[in-house]
């Protein structure tokens, strides 16, 4: 077989399998200075090195590929068990495993740079200085479309509590990354929902030079194994992800967009379908990233893009920008008609069929 | 033929009870055509709107050319995901990814092969036996478990093997005893040149150690460890890791699904499963951290 799509016998089961994403102009979007052909990305740490996803999706169809958080030194991560299945979600404590920035620049980034997909490099450090150093190491490396500052990782100086808990700590890591990064490289700040004043943290990040925000990282949770009578994860608590956290993520996006309408947001948390992606756009995100759904359905992104394209057309939304933040408009507001033919009135017969 | 796995909507052909297990045959030509013994498939349990996001992973018992290509898996019903699977009937569709992982390495010459299994994991040995047989190898089986119900395929092993020894701890089937007890004797009697194994982790550990004592190479499938730790099967979630030392002497946390499921038995640090050995590449240096490192 050549490089062609490998799943030629994929049947059109609803919601599954790979179909080519439409090269629709409707799907173009912007994250500040970053222009993307499609608004659905992979979430940090959920697409492997990219090679593992490649048999299931053409990477060039993704809006962008976000790497696992890159650290200064190689990291083995946490002991197993690292995952527990919870209702509509996963509880994970993986521990940011990875080859370190050296190995990443040597083996992973060059391969990604050849795939024709914008690469967002997530970075994670123990201190603001490490974030600065990591961003500096990425200078001049081919194929870095943007840097995502993983402010949800533990701050050693704050006894391991995450940077994103405090506006000042979050701002410090963003400022350090901004200063270290090449001047033209956009910097996104990734934040978590487990904070008292998310909008305050977001504002501090924007002031520190973030070009946009990624909302949200996982939500802290725990599960107990009733067979062993012990916590299901070795680390006791873990990060909850998947559809279980979607309402939390939507609330965060909505809240931050209301406070900072000009700041681009990548919405993350439990997206598995085009309509769910649309929810995030309406709440104020300019793009969405898919994480946990990739573990369940490695071909998810092209499907979500296709469903989103159809959903936008059905609502006569001609561009992504027309949808972004629309949920914040007063009730009764009609979106602009952007050169899309009005949807034909449904056939009465169809109505009968779907009516309860 | 291609090495790349596929994602496909497979049609259920049959689901039947085999001893205490369920055997499911799926029509999945692209998976069957690519399959090599030791590889596995990852199944989405619960349908398109499932609340269960972890893929269930199973070794493959047999592939056949019928209906363009079928794949048969054997599993125990232990949790709601496998209960859903056991409940499927013919013509249902299941989202299947495969074949995944590294297969058993095959000998170049027609040598004597010892295949050791336990539990439903033993099913994966039969696809291997078929391939080895076609290469002119001699095939000897050792299957073991707590009771007869825990041993899959003992009759099949008698049929396809040049010899087969079955052990149960209660003596309900075959010899009373454990695989550990009979293995040295069987290795000596059969003149085995290589040992293959698939089954519970303690069994693999025993096989690896005994093979090493006899100076024999061992190829073991950590399919069962993968099934209890992994979430995706394709190498993206990083949850299925175990410590493996490499040619260069460095221990790395290897993914059971991607670097495995078949590993060289002598390379796995069996005693350190479920830990990050302090000398592993990238092991935490700052042990004083309250949560031992990043939470994600
Ligand atoms: C196994 C796993 C690994 C992750 N690794 C990272 C990471 O390296 N860096 C990061 O910023 N977020 C990481 N995340 C968080 C995701 O990027 C995402 O924010 C979160 O899972 C919520 O999205 P989802 O519900 O679509 O998964 C990880 C999540 C999971 C489940
Ligand atoms: S099961 Fe996900 S990386 Fe192995």
Topology:
The complex is a heterodimer of chains A (356) and B (296).
Chain A: E1 29-31, E2 34-36, E3 40-42, E4 65-66, E5 83-86, E6 89-92, H1 100-113, E7 119-123, H2 128-137, E8 144-150, E9 154-155, E10 161-162, H3 167-180, E11 187-191, H4 198-207, E12 212-215, E13 219-222, E14 224-225, E15 230-231, E16 237-241, H5 246-259, E17 265-268, H6 274-283, E18 287-290, H7 292-296, H8 300-314, H9 320-323, H10 348-354
Helix pairs in contact in A: 2-3, 3-4, 4-5, 6-8
Chain B: E1 6-18, E2 21-27, H1 29-34, E3 40-43, E4 56-64, E5 70-75, H2 80-86, E6 93-100, E7 112-117, H3 124-134, E8 138-145, H4 154-160, E9 163-168, E10 175-176, H5 179-190, E11 194-198, H6 201-213, E12 218-221, H7 223-229, E13 241-245, E14 251-255, E15 262-264
Parallel strand pairs in B: 7-8, 7-11, 8-9, 9-10, 11-12
Antiparallel strand pairs in B: 1-2, 1-6, 2-5, 3-4, 3-6, 4-5, 12-15, 13-14
The structure holds flavin mononucleotide and FE2/S2 (inorganic) cluster.
Residues 230-233, 235-240, 255-257 of chain B line the site of FE2/S2 (inorganic) cluster.
